[in-house]
UniProtKB/TrEMBL annotation:
It comes from the Eukaryota. Pfam families: VWA. This is VWFA domain-containing protein. CDD domains: vWFA_subfamily_ECM (cd01450). Residues 512-545 are annotated as: Disordered. Signal peptide: none annotated. SMART domains: VWA. InterPro entries: ECM_Assembly_Org, VWF_A, vWFA_dom_sf. Residues 512-537 have a biased composition (Basic and acidic residues). It comes from Rangifer tarandus platyrhynchus. Residues 19-172, 225-432 form the VWFA domain.
Amino acid sequence: MSVKLQPAGVSKCPVFPTDVVLALDTSDDVSQLDCERMRDILLSLLMKMGISGSNCPMGAQLAVVSYGNGTDYLVRLSDRKGRPALLQAVRGLSPAGSSGSRHLGDAVRFAVRHVFKRLRAGPLLGKVAVFFQVGWTRDAGSISTATLELSMLDITAVVVTFTEDHSLLDALLMNRNNRFHLYVWEMESQQRAEGMARCTLCCDQCLPAPECRWGTPRPLQVDVDIAFVVDGSHGGGADLYRAALTLVDAVLEEVEVARQPSASPPPRGARVALVTHTTPGFWPGGGRSPVLEGFHLTAYGHRTQTQRSVCEAVGHPLRGAPALGHALEWTLEKVLPAVPLLRRAQVLFAIVASETSSWDREKLRTLSLEAKCKGITLFVLALGPGVGTHELAELVHVASSPWEQHLLHLEGVSEAEVTYALGFTRAFLNPLKSGTNQYPPPDLIEQCGDPSRGDTPLQPTLPVRRLPKHQCGKSALTDDLKALEAKGSFREEDREAAMTSITQQEALENYEKSGYDAEENHQKDPAKLKKTGKERSPGNVYDPCSLAPVKGECQDYVL
């Protein structure tokens, strides 16, 4: 059956199948005029787009929600309404059912966690969320967390606001990953719905219009000291240890490494250290170090050198008893204070694959609190089934606040989960310079005992989008991950019951070719890479846009 997706004379929009959420502001201060403006803009957008009335992978599939103090469905994606039904729903929009004060952050999180829960399949499937904001919003913290979730899932977010006093965060506005767009239309004469649609709803991911091209994102330039503390104990096993180091390697693709880390003052960029724990035979007070130091903060001034060292550590898990608390203590004493001129932003990035030993629990509580009181950020990635519900409850208190932005639990290490973890980490790094979060947070300062202890406000940042493109990172682990999944090594549990911070979606990000740092990738030792997987060349990068179009059969049916 052939379906006509757009009126005659209108160019194809969207170019690829796209799932769209339109969120209307129905707060109690929305006037009749504001309501009519939102309605007219929506009607204009609906007339430009080809609407799919089925789950056929063509055109746009739309959901419409309204938000104020809460968020309500007007049309669900699963309704698969055609253009006439959508137009009727939008024309019936009225401010009479206003729903309290404005909570934009909650509306964004609702769209991420509920509306985009089930999507159509396809390598170039688009995900776009358009939020209307009539006035000022108070939920800054909620918007910060929602921004993180949007970044993780590669959702293009559009905010159309009718006021300059929009109070949106820098983390949302100052984003160069082409995923966030702000349109301030105070006056009706400023509205340019067609231009907005061209670079968002109708954007061709493979051949974007000239005005929609922003160039290749570069690594995040943030002045930070990051110490990766990786679980190599017998509780996690060699496979999870390998997965953890692969994630470390991939995270290094996201940041600009300081060229001369020991210089005074330190140059721009990140200084990185790696420690693994726990050494065999370690016991508190026994005189043995609990960790093995891979490299310290001033060891390398080049990303390639750092990643090579990470790759070399892959085959050497320590297999001692789990002791995260003692590993953090050693890192706080030996790694962070051992370099000149510590950065204002300091991160302990702990990758945990097992429940820590009973004799280590008190140490973990006290040392994590001490680190946070010093203004150090604790980010915890819990990996695999060895981290159960009880341990996650403990890690909530270990991670920095808000824990929703600093703690992630993955049940397994499938390709989708690894991609999800990279998106989460990338979104976590973005606000380190934005001042969005304060370390320590105000609610912890009293517990720390000194109102000024460790208070290190941060500066604004520019989030970027840069995906791993070399074999040692994500692809070197592909065969191992598939083998683990085939053996059924990981169980699927309810993520809310396991206190997972964000609802995970089985959605793979599209990989992009990037010419940046090409020389660095060619400098890597091929012999080292072959130890962890096949050598990868730029020609092997997965790029859906390079595939020849395939015209398949599609019937008008409903699941």
